Amino acid sequence: MKALNDLHLVLIAALIQILKSIIHDSNATWLLLNGHYYQSYKYFHEFRNEIRAIFEFGPKVMTAINKYASDIFGNDKSHKFCVHIRRDDFLQHRNLESRTYFVVPAVLRVFKFLQRESGVHNVSAVFIGAKPDFWDALNVTQNFSPHFDTVYNARLSSRGEDMAFGATYCDSFLISASGSTFGWWMAYLGNTAMPVFYNGQAFPNGSRTWHCLTYRA
Ligand SMILES: *[C@@H]1O[C@H](CO)[C@@H](O)[C@H](O)[C@H]1NC(C)=O
Ligand SMILES: *[C@@H]1O[C@H](CO)[C@@H](O)[C@H](O)[C@H]1NC(C)=O
Ligand SMILES: *[C@@H]1O[C@H](CO)[C@@H](O)[C@H](O)[C@H]1NC(C)=O
């Protein structure tokens, strides 16, 4: 079994609070959950607002990301379309990592969607989590610069800052590696009205079995 990371522990603490608020007047000592896979937002979506309040980012991380955002964005008021990239450990993992053949056409498709369906015209793309080798492989100048006001490669100094930045500064969001819990949480904690797009393929073999990721705002 995969080790629980901090995020899972925070989530478990949140779920316990919620269960306490649902199960009134019980003097039971134990609560036995007899399922085997609880990693789905469907178990807590009803409490989305409470979850968002529990996950509110602290002042230290907010100060750091606000400064970073004002440094990179300056006066750029365009719509910020964020593209979450996750590779690293996914290259050895059963989850499918972000790949150029998905990211390039998906970014252009979302750009067209935003223009046509949402009437957004001045759009900047903001990549989050793209390391230098992947950034180079994307051929940004050739593939994206003609379409977007500006293309940013956001490089924050920790995963916590990455998450706070993604949840705070994006107007639309693409999860390009659907097995990434960080990408998913950025979108879930972000603006509740923002459109979220994701890769329907979650595994290298083409299986779409991550039903828990079929999240729509
Ligand atoms: C918005 O986009 C148009 C067309 O791409 C461009 O001419 C204009 O300068 C942009 N406006 C801003 C405020 O960036
Ligand atoms: C980037 O450019 C190189 C050289 O033209 C090309 O071989 C490669 O397929 C391009 N990659 C993408 C993702 O556009
Ligand atoms: C695809 O990979 C996933 C994860 O390793 C596995 O659960 C699933 O059974 C595989 N599907 C097929 C059709 O091989």
UniProtKB/TrEMBL annotation:
An MF annotation (GO) of this entry: galactoside 2-alpha-L-fucosyltransferase activity
Please report a single Pfam family linked to this protein. Glyco_transf_11
Q: Which UniProt keywords apply?
A: Glycosyltransferase, Signal, Transferase
Give the signal peptide, or none.
1-28
Q: Oxidoreductase: is it a keyword of this entry?
A: no
Question: Is Repressor included in the keywords of this UniProt record?
Answer: no
InterPro entries (UniProt xref): Alpha-1-2_FucT (IPR052501), Glyco_trans_11 (IPR002516)
User: What GO biological process term is on the record, naming one?
Assistant: carbohydrate metabolic process
One GO CC annotation? membrane
Q: What name does the UniProt record give this protein? A: L-Fucosyltransferase
